[in-house]
Amino acid sequence: MNRPDSPSLAPQGISRRQALLKLLRVGSIGAGVALLGEWLSGRSRHPVEAVITNAKRSHTVAADAHFPDVVIVEGAEPPQLVQTALRELGGISRFVARNDIVLVKPNIGWDRTPEQAANTNPQLVAEVVRQCLSAGAKKVIVTDVSCNDPRRCFQRSGIAEAARNAGALVLLPDPTQFKDVDIEGEVLRTWQIFEPFLSADKIINLPIAKHHSLSGATLGMKNWFGMLGGMRNQLHQRIHESLVDLADFVRPTLTVVDCYRILVRNGPTGGSLEDVALHKTLVAGTDPVAIDAYVAKRFWNLNVDALPYLRLASQRGLGSYEFEKVNSRVVKLS
Q1: Which residues lie below 8 Å from residue 142, measured CB to CB, with a gap of 6+?
Q2: Phi/psi at 107 (nearest 5 deg)?
Q3: pLDDT digits (tens, 9 = 90+) for 6-61
Q4: Domain of 35?
Q5: 85-to-91, 210, 286, 308 alpha-carbon distances in Å
Q6: CA angle 154, 156, 160 (to 5 degrees)
Q7: Domain identity same for 77 and 186
Q8: The total number of structural domains that make up the chain
Q9: Whole-number pLDDT of residue 49
Q10: Is the Cβ–Cβ distance between 259 and 295 less than 8 Å?
Q11: Which of 84, 147, 195, 260 is 20 to 30 A from 77 in CA distance terms?
């Protein structure tokens, strides 16, 4: 019999044994819920990936004195410009081997049409893709990490459709496919890089030449910002050093600068057709520093003093800013 001042374990109508069994069941359920919560909590934690180190590798091909380091082709439509430049440089098979996975990196940063010249000309991209596949490439990937909405940029630039029709795999930037990588630069260390740039056998840089409000011009080496995730606008605080670190990290197989239409002012986004000049020119080669130096001087009269990254890149062994001294060739098709 219970004492008057003790709470009863058995409510009215329920025996002591039944009450104890009920409490045991409730306790078991509570413990199970607690264990389940702990398990779910553990499952919901995102695994912390280790920073990828030793990812830096050169994608360059061997130098060949039979061919120029830089070729300038003028006076034709985009497919003919690409075909002529590659022929002068030794043919696409010099750069792409059978079963290579090739990444082609245009500028697809902006929600603009080809006529506005804020992105690489889609016909140039398509022809580079066709050339790589003709050399036996296993896969040709076309991608960029856009500044505006990627789907609109890829579609409105005309690059997605043109590249797919030429046989490329077109990849929009996927937030789950960025890896923390130690760039091993003098300024840049750990940064997020879109994974396809880490696994390609060959990388072809295919930027468009255009005005840039901060650096004067955005050319080949500036195009590497388009492989990065994160708050890459922060890199503008030391833009010249950052450009060199990125170029040193990638070391591309080939650089092909689109000078077919040039955004001569109000870059990098542009918008007005009055800011665009038609030059029908392509500048390509294996010396990315000389190519940037030549294009900057020719179209904006900018020298190494205006673009300090050129001198820094030369000091790093990435090429020569003295483009007048490199082995070059000019081909006029008109």
Answers
A1: 103, 104, 106, 125, 129, 159, 160, 163, 168, 169, 170, 171
A2: -90, 115
A3: 333 333 444 444 443 443 344 444 444 343 333 333 333 334 457 887 787 899 99
A4: 10-45
A5: 8, 20, 12, 28
A6: 35
A7: yes
A8: 2
A9: 59
A10: yes
A11: 147
